[in-house]
Amino acid sequence: MGLDCNWTSVARYKDALILTLAPLILGIVPILSNTNEARCGYVIMLMAVYWMTEAVPVAVTALIPVFAFPLLGIMSTGDVCIVYMKETNMMFLGGLTVAIAVEHCNLHRRIALRVILFVGQSPRSLMAGFMLTTMFLSMWISNTATTAMMVPIVDAILAELYTAREVQDSTAIEMDLSVSPAKQSQMDLVNNDASQQNQGGNLKKTERGNAKKTETQGEDNKESSLEIQRRKTIRTMVFLSVMYASDIGGTGVITGTAPNLIVMSTLESSYSEPTGLNFLTWMLFNVPGMLICVLLAWVWLQIRYLGLFRRNSEANELAKEVPEERKQAVRRLVEAKYRDLGPIRTQEITVLVLFIILVLLWLFRAPEFIEGWAGYFEHTYGVEVDDATPAMFVVFLLFCLPAKLDFLCFRKPQDPPRDKNDKNEVLTWRAVQEKIPWGIVLLLGGGFAMAEGSKVSGLSYWLGQKLYIFKGVNKGVIVLTVTLLTAMLTEVASNSATASIILPVLNQLALNIEVNPLYLMLPAAVCCSYAFMLPVATPPNAIVFSVADMKSSEMMKAGIVMNVVCVLVLNVMINTLGVVIFDLNNMPAWTNSSLTV
C-alpha cells in the first residue's frame, strides 16, 4: 500500500509539520553558539515563526517564554511571569472594560445612528458618516467590536437605499411586458372594424410599435442590469470604507490597538526616564494623521468605485444621485432604529460621564506643558502614578454606581418591585467575562516577556552592534523602508506579533545610528495597523470580506493603494509634526538612561 505524498496531503498537515520542524531546524542556533544571546534568539525566532504561521494559537505562542526562558537559563520563572501583567497591560484592561461598558449599554449604537442622521443620506454622505463614526468608535473600543456593530447598520441602510429601487424598476418592466399584448389585441379589434386597406397600414404601424416596444424593453433591462451593478459596486465601496476606518481609527489613541501599547511598554522597559510619549502627545501626533488617512480613503474609494474625475458614461451613471424619496426612506429607517433604543437612560449617561472623566484623566496626568495632576501625588507621597491608576478607578466605579435611579427618593409608586438578585450596577461582571479578549492580554504579555528576555540576555546589545552597518544611511530612507516593510509584514502576521518582533530591534537600531528612538518606533507601531489588503490580516477585514461577498483580489487591489497612501502620510507626519512635538532632530537626554545591558 503506497503512501499518499501529494501536495494536498502535505498541506493538510502543514501546522503539524511547522510545529515539529521549526524547533528542530532553529535549534542549530543555540547548538552552534551556546550563549545567552543565542538561546534567547532561538526562543524569539521560534515565537516569530509560530506567530506568522499560526501553527498554534497566537495567545498560546505568547506563553512560550514562561517555560522556555527558565529552562534555557535566560530568566527565572518569577521574573518572566511578573512581566505579563505590567502597568501597560493593566491600562489596556481598564480601557477595554470601559469600552465594554459603552457596548453593554448600547451607547455606541446611539452615537452611530445620530451621526448618520446628521451627515445626510446620499451615498457619499452616508459613506462619510459611516467612516467618521467607525473611526471615532474604533479609537476607544476594539476594532472588531466596532466593525461587528457597524456592519448590520450599514447593510440595512444600503438595502433600504437600493433594493427598493431595484424591485420597483423590475416591477415596472414586468408590468410593461404584461400590458403590451392587451394593447395589441385591442388594436386588432379596432382594425377588424376598419377597411381592408386601412388594416394593411395599421399592421405596419403595429409592427413598428412592437419594434419600438422591444427596443424600450431592451433599454429597461439594460437599465435594470446597470442598477444591480451600481448597487453591488456601492455596497463593496461602503463596506471597504468601514473596514479602512476601523483599522485606521485604532491608531488615534494609545489604547486603540495593541501595537500602540507595545511601543509604550518597550520604551518604558528600555529607559528609566520619561520619553515624552504619553496619552496626550500620542493623540497630538496621531489624530491629525488619522483624520488625513480617513479623508484620503474616502476620496480613493470614490475614485475607484464611483469614477470620480472620470468622464465616461458608466462612471457618471454609477455616481448619479439617488432619488429624494429613497433618501427619505433611509432617514425614516435610521430614525426608527434610533427610536427603538428608547430615551437615553441613566446607565448611558453614567457611562458617558465616566468615559469623559477617564479620557480627561489620561490627557492631563502628565501633559508635559504643565505638571499634571499626577505630579501632586509624586511630590506628596513620592510615588509615580501611571495611566493604569485612573483606568482601574473608573472601572471600579462602573461596578459601584447604579444603572437605574429606582431607590430611596428616586423610586416612584408605579415602579415594579425590585429583583433581589439585580444588583443594579452599570456594568456586570458576566459582560466583562464574556467580552474581554484574554488572548490579546496574553499576547501583549508575551511581547513584553520577549523584550525583557532580549534585554536581560544581552541580545539587544549584540543586535545593536550588528546594526552598525546602517550608520551612514539617511534616516528618512530608513524610516520609509521600515514603515513599508512593516505594512507588508502585518498583512500576513498579527499586528501585535509584528510589533513585538520589530520594535525592540528598531530601538537598538536607533541607538546605534544615534537617532531618537521615537523616530523609528512610533511610525512602525502605527504601520502595524495598516493592514488593508488581505481578509486574514485583521478581524475587521475578515468580517467585511464575509458580509460584502467580495473577491480577495478586489480587496487587494483597493487595499494596496491604501497601504501606500497611509505609509506616505505617516512619513510626512513624522518628519513634520513629529519633529515639532518630539524634537526628533536631536538625540534626547533620556536615551542616556538606557536600561539595556
From TrEMBL:
CDD domains: SLC13_permease. Residues 204-226 have a biased composition (Basic and acidic residues). GO terms for cellular component: plasma membrane. It is found in: Membrane. GO terms for molecular function: citrate transmembrane transporter activity; succinate transmembrane transporter activity. PROSITE patterns: NA_SULFATE. Keywords: Membrane, Transmembrane, Transmembrane helix, Transport. This is Uncharacterized protein. It comes from Scylla paramamosain (Mud crab).
